[in-house]
Design goal:
Elements (H helix, E strand, L loop, with lengths): L1 E6 L5 H25 L4 H10 L5 H26 L7 H12 L1 H5 L8 H27 L3 H21 L34 H18 L1 H11 L1 H6 L4 H28 L10 H11 L4 H24 L5 H22 E6 L2 H10 L1
Helix pairs in contact: 1-2, 1-14, 2-13, 3-8, 3-11, 3-12, 3-13, 4-6, 4-7, 4-11, 4-12, 6-7, 6-11, 8-9, 8-13, 12-13, 12-14, 13-14
């Protein structure tokens, strides 16, 4: 006996739309069961996790801060995944973007100019794009698997950041703490509203999502992404370059991840330190698939995943659970998103291997 997945002849359009909502509902259900097993009241725990962070103005600003990098990174990843290029290293591109964008405020800390912030953002995008160019080059020249190369580059970027803030870029007046100099006022991404500290990184994320949605829906390049993603052979007949698409999708994805990185450190942290991300680059993969690889859907899913970060922090204080609960929720959500998608496209069949059973009978 074996279990097989058989491709459905037709897929339900209704279930494709409802799949993310079903995955979210299942996540909440199993999350409640998890809280019950931990000895917590499921209703009050889920309330503190998903509802309480939405009741205060300051927490809504925090939600926007945490959603901004998730949306920015996930929009770039959606472009990669729809073109069948699997960039798993956005966390590294995020880190490199933060470092390259910080060159000016760290090394030229006495420079005060209105040009400082635009240059930081451009350098952050360039750094992320160049770092994403490494797996693109390895794939197009040596047919190397971009999943492995982009993932391994994450750890190189993190170790490089750790070395910089503990060594050459450490603040000489920072009492030996592993962090860079604090950014001058011109190098801090300004707040959007006076009611809280949500910065312009969230606006960048919304603009990027709308821009990529327009590209995918109304431009020839967007059509090229879809065709090559569905069939590379059909794309070649149409005159599209699969290698060119590897470069395009990886560079755009890396640039958006780099923009997220420099926006995070300049808008939320104010300096470089060994840890600048709770795993935004990996969580953005969940955001991309929960949003159905649609840039507008990614805005909503980015807010949902940001809520898990914010709710997890609040739940640690209000009900005394571990910070690992956040990762469990995110893992459950990814599992159910992929499971629902798999069951929409395939049906499960149990196959009994009659030939093998007959051979066993003959042998007896």
């Amino acid at each position: 006996m074996r279990i097989e997945l058989e491709k459905r002849s037709r897929t339900s359009g209704l279930f494709q739309v409802l799949s993310p909502l079903l995955a979210l509902a299942l996540t909440v259900l199993f999350g409640g069961i998890m809280f019950a097993l931990l000895g917590k009241d499921p209703v009050s725990a889920l309330y503190s996790f998903f509802i309480e962070p939405l009741l205060e103005v300051w927490s809504l600003h925090e939600l926007a801060i945490k959603a901004a990098p998730l949306i920015l990174i996930a929009v770039g990843l959606s472009l990669c995944y729809r073109s069948n290029n699997w960039n798993i290293g956005a966390e590294g591109q995020f880190t490199i973007g933060a470092m390259t964008g910080s060159i000016l405020p760290v090394l030229f800390y006495e420079w005060h100019s209105p040009l400082l912030m635009p240059l930081m953002l451009l350098m952050g995008m360039a750094g992320g794009a160049l770092y994403a160019a490494i797996p693109a080059l390895l794939k197009t020249r040596f047919n190397t698997n971009e999943i492995l190369t982009s993932l391994m580059l994450v750890y190189i970027a993190q170790l490089l950041l750790d070395w910089l803030v503990r060594g050459p870029w450490r603040d000489p007046q920072g009492y030996n703490f592993p962090q860079s100099r604090s950014y001058v006022t011109e190098a801090v991404l300004p707040e959007m509203l006076t009611s809280g500290r949500a910065h312009w990184g969230f606006a960048f994320a919304i603009i990027a999502a709308i821009g990529v949605w327009f590209l995918m829906r109304y431009t020839l390049k967007g059509f090229e992404v879809v065709v090559l993603g569905q069939s590379e052979r059909a794309g070649r007949f149409a005159g599209f370059s699969s290698k060119g698409m590897v470069w395009f999708s990886m560079l755009v994805s890396g640039a958006l991840a780099g923009l997220a990185g420099i926006s995070e450190v300049s808008g939320s942290i104010g300096h470089l330190q060994p840890s600048i991300s709770p795993g935004y680059g990996f969580t953005a993969i969940i955001v991309a698939f929960l949003g159905r690889l649609n840039p507008l859907g990614i805005i909503a899913s980015g807010l949902v995943l940001a809520l898990t970060y914010l709710g997890g922090e609040g739940a640690q204080l209000s009900i005394g659970v571990s910070d690992k609960v956040t990762r469990v929720f995110q893992g459950l959500l990814l599992f159910f998103v992929l499971s629902c998608d798999a069951l929409i496209l395939y049906k499960v069949r149990i196959v009994f291997d009659k030939s093998r059973s007959l051979l066993k009978g003959d042998a007896r």
